[in-house]
Amino acid sequence: MGKKWYYVLAILLAACSWIGNVWHYEANQLGRTVFLEHHVETREGGGRVFDLYYVEDKQADKRLSSIRIEGYPGQIVTPYPRYAEYQRQYLGKMMVNLNAPQKKGAGVKLEEPVLIREVTALYSDGSSEQVNVGEIYVWPGVYRQDEQDPISWTSGGSSSDHSGYDSAVVKRPVQLTAFSSKLLDIAVEGHLRVYADISSQIPGTSYRSQPSEAHIELRGEPVDEIQLPLNIHKGDSIRISHQFDMPSLEKSLQVYQLLLKTTFMEESGRQWHGETVIPYHPRPTDQELSEFVRDSRRTP
Question: With a threshold of 0.90, does the pTM exceed it?
Fold first, then answer.
């Protein structure tokens, strides 16, 4: 074989390599902005926020600039377009505070939440579109009389393994009558464990907040196994802890934020409500995000 054929073969191999690199590059590009699937509870006003996560190519022609949720003119949206960086994509998020004024008047009556499934995505080129982000339950603002509340929430913490806790001290005798959330189905499915520990204070001691932990231990009983109503005495402590256990890539790349409501009743019949935020924010590896990109390319 003459030198000419060696040159031809070298050119063909280089072309095949180039084509292969281009194909591999294109196969790992989204070509659009893709929102993760969200399951979120939030509340109007009071500083309550939630995050909407999305994935974009690093070389995207247009980028997500902001989002808008209809019906909430006072909303505040703070973009974090490079919340996490990967080999070919960015994981971004929009931090949202709906910032609606709280309702006036006494009492703590809880109404049904508004369900939002779509938001308006606003892009850098001036275009916009309606996109499905999952389910966002927006509870109306609640008028609180904190000084009179028989439950004092004192501390809380979380860990990188998707565990966390909230603790409270009981200032007056109450009955614990209910645990509730619109998203507790995930606990029924076995992907979230929520425990409550009701402990009596040892005479002669005062309540101390717990130190931060690398892993938050689940204490007490699962909330769905606690016999209600449950009498709680002055000086007792309440600790609500949780742990997410996501079994698959599909589940691990979904976003959760539960508002676990605890309902208490005094002897007079007056009800009070506590609220524990139980969040799950994805932290995918490069390999997991690459799989997400390939799956998203197959889904229009």
Answer: no
